[in-house]
Amino acid sequence: MNTEKINIAEKLSLFSDHWNPRIVGELNGQHVKLVKFKGEFVWHKHDNEDELFYVVNGEFIMEFRDKTVLLKANEFIIVPRGVEHRPVAENEVSVMLFEPTSTLNTGNTKGELTREQLEKI
Amino acid sequence: MNTEKINIAEKLSLFSDHWNPRIVGELNGQHVKLVKFKGEFVWHKHDNEDELFYVVNGEFIMEFRDKTVLLKANEFIIVPRGVEHRPVAENEVSVMLFEPTSTLNTGNTKGELTREQLEKI
Fold first, then answer.
1. Of A33, A110, B66, B84, which one has the greatest count of Cβ atoms within 10 A?
2. pTM for the whole structure
3. What is the count of residue pairs from A and B with beta carbons less than 8 Å apart?
4. In chain B, what are the domain boundaries?
């Protein structure tokens, strides 16, 4: 049983690279991850996983094929499975993710930004 | 498909009662809830659900049978299934919960604080 508390700022201080999620918690088959975005990600979708993006600080735009959504600190969005999306961040943004443990960051679009083995911090 | 963004402060402004979680999101069989705590809750456990408590603002103490954990803003704790716990808040605190849709707020201890039908806001 792990009931240690997790401090988000402390965990964010442990890494500085972009588009490389770290695992900070696990429950009910889901992971809690922290990630820093900067720049443009790749268009992708997840066939079997819904994804939640919660902005810790900064802001970014979630692009969909038919609209864009600007997300600021203490706002979140849920991207349903099957829906193509692409996060774009003009400046660095820190984001908390909730998603199934099976989720691959680039979904159906494997490439140089794909991270298969995520670090637990 | 619902890809509207959720603003936490805006949702928190919609209610003021304590110990009555509201549903603000759903994904992968999990609910995202917001709740305000003040005072002492009841000791309880969830036999089949792990629960995540994320402090949006304020602070509270999570009591376990063998220790207590003080949680402040932007900190979270995961309470594994089967583990007895009791949240206690000297002052009002706003908390985001992430847990299976099957989760009953008072777990195995039904009583006057039990909320069976949660409002979606």
1. A33
2. 0.96
3. 109
4. 8-100
